[in-house]
Design brief:
Elements lengths: L5 H9 L13 H15 L3 E7 L6 H16 L3 E7 L6 H11 L1 H4 L2 H4 L6 H7 L1 E4 L7 H15 L4 E6 L5 H11 L4 E5 L15 E3 H7 L4 H4 L6 H12 L4 E5 L4 H6 L6 E4 L4 E5 L5 H14 L7 H10 E6 L3 E9 L8 E9 L8 H15 L4 E6 L2 H9 L3 E3 L14 H6 L1 E6 L6
Parallel strand pairs: 1-2, 1-5, 2-4, 3-4, 5-7, 6-8, 12-13
Antiparallel strand pairs: 7-8, 9-10, 10-11, 11-12, 13-15, 14-15
Helix pairs in contact: 9-12
Length: 430
């Protein structure tokens, strides 16, 4: 029997669609909020970037990379930028070009205090050539790594030049693995991985990645030319790198700093873990709630209502650190009716279609069963949420079919627009 296309493989694995919605314009306030969310994740961590130099042909390309790197450096993030040349220039020539074009963008007043060396030595000290035989033997690999660490001891930036772009990903992956980097970012003009239907796959864990790398699978999915890249991503994950991102040069900042992303995120295991929200996550969750409220997916809540959501809610975590969604089960006001309300169900754009919402709802329904509730309900004004609840066994009901206390002090205009869904616990499979 013919092998299924990769989009079907991923859907079979996750039980849902894998399509990513088109990029939306983000306001400056929203972009800032999202960027802060990810800068918090990157603080005190190490990020390794594999960058084909041919994609940086204009001043604007260097300017964008310089801005992103300065933001990371000011954020107390260690940054390793590795560039791969076309082979027309020697490694030494590549280093000089990078020093000339990128150096002034990285070493400014805002970043100079991060480095130990004297001002005149900082720019030259951070740049170095990675020799052609760097990975030829364990001894040469170790020597390269010692040299990289020697540069990083002087400051949080390393810029390496790999003469042949064909070796760029292997060198970058090796460095990321041996240093236990938080993230490896692979940059290719083709961007993230798309399925046979042309839809981009926003997330893939190592088991699905390995399935795709079985003989014939990548070719069936039209990804024969990406097989080597996929192997590098899997090797890095198995080697201890926290996560791998694959994106285009133009989408680099969006991939790092927005919920939506622009490419494909690879992680090792524990695709999605649902757990009670912890205090250390509360600030991140509040940012997600604010985002959901601005987008109109969540209703505006008073601080005490948000506090109740935090203390009764669950978070969906991708891999070990990517917060993908939130949801809470509120029961306190409805004790007499033995009812519970699903509130604050919201998933980050990047992970829509990955089954995160369904997993959150299954968890709160299990919680409702344990509390011996008679039914659970949810209220929404959002069309996609209505479809979601219907797909998961909820029935549309009237506002009279839920506890009257729900509507005490409720905004009259929103009450006129809201749609109510309810599911009897007797209908929920254990």
């Amino acid at each position: 029997m013919a092998s299924p296309p990769i989009t079907r493989l991923v859907r079979l694995w996750y039980g849902g669609a894998v399509t990513k919605p088109a990029a939306a314009d983000l306001s400056a306030e929203l972009s800032f909020s999202e960027k802060e969310f990810y800068l918090d994740e990157f603080r005190g961590r190490t990020l390794v970037f594999a960058l084909p130099l041919r994609e940086f042909s204009r001043d604007k390309h260097y300017a964008a990379l310089g801005l992103m790197t300065r933001e990371l450096l000011r954020n107390d993030t260690r940054v390793l930028l590795l560039f791969g040349g076309s082979g027309r220039l020697s490694g030494e020539q590549l280093v000089r070009r990078l020093q000339r074009r990128l150096g002034p963008l990285l070493f400014r007043e805002e970043t100079r205090g991060l480095f130990r060396r004297k001002r005149g030595q900082q720019r030259s000290a951070a740049f170095t050539e990675i020799e052609a035989d760097a990975l030829a033997s364990p001894e040469s690999t170790l020597a390269m790594l010692i040299r990289v660490w020697g540069i990083l001891r002087e400051g949080p930036l390393f810029v390496g030049a790999v003469e042949d772009e064909a070796r760029l990903f292997d060198v970058s992956s090796t460095i990321a693995e041996r240093f236990g980097a938080h993230k490896l970012v692979l940059v290719e003009s083709a961007g993230g991985i798309s399925g046979i239907d042309g839809q981009q796959i926003s997330f893939m864990d190592e088991p699905v990645l390995s399935t795709l790398l079985h003989e014939g699978e990548a070719e069936w999915a039209g990804l024969a030319d990406r097989r080597r890249t996929l192997r590098v991503a899997r090797k890095a994950l198995r080697g201890g790198v926290g996560s791998v991102n694959l994106c285009s040069p133009a989408g680099l900042a969006r991939e790092l700093f927005t919920y939506e992303g622009s490419g494909t995120l690879f992680t090792l295991a524990d695709y999605c873990r649902i757990e009670r929200l912890r205090m250390d996550e509360f600030e991140e969750v509040e940012k997600l709630i604010e985002r959901g409220q601005r987008d109109g997916f969540l209703k505006l809540r008073r601080p005490e209502e948000i506090g109740a959501l935090l203390l009764t809610g669950y978070g969906a975590t991708i891999s070990s650190h990517h917060l993908a969604g939130i949801c809470a089960l509120v029961t306190a006001p409805y004790t007499a009716e033995r009812a519970g309300e699903i509130v604050g169900l919201y998933t980050i754009t990047r992970f829509k279609g990955e089954g995160v919402g369904a997993r959150l709802v299954r968890r709160v329904l299990a919680d409702a069963r344990a509390q011996q509730l008679g039914y659970v309900f949810a209220c929404t004004t959002e069309k996609r949420a209505q479809v979601f609840f219907e797909r998961h066994g909820f029935h549309r009901v009237t506002i009279e079919d839920v506890p009257p206390v729900k509507w005490v002090g409720y905004d009259p205009a929103r009450r006129h627009q809201v749609t109510v869904y309810r599911i009897e616990m007797s209908e929920v499979e254990e």
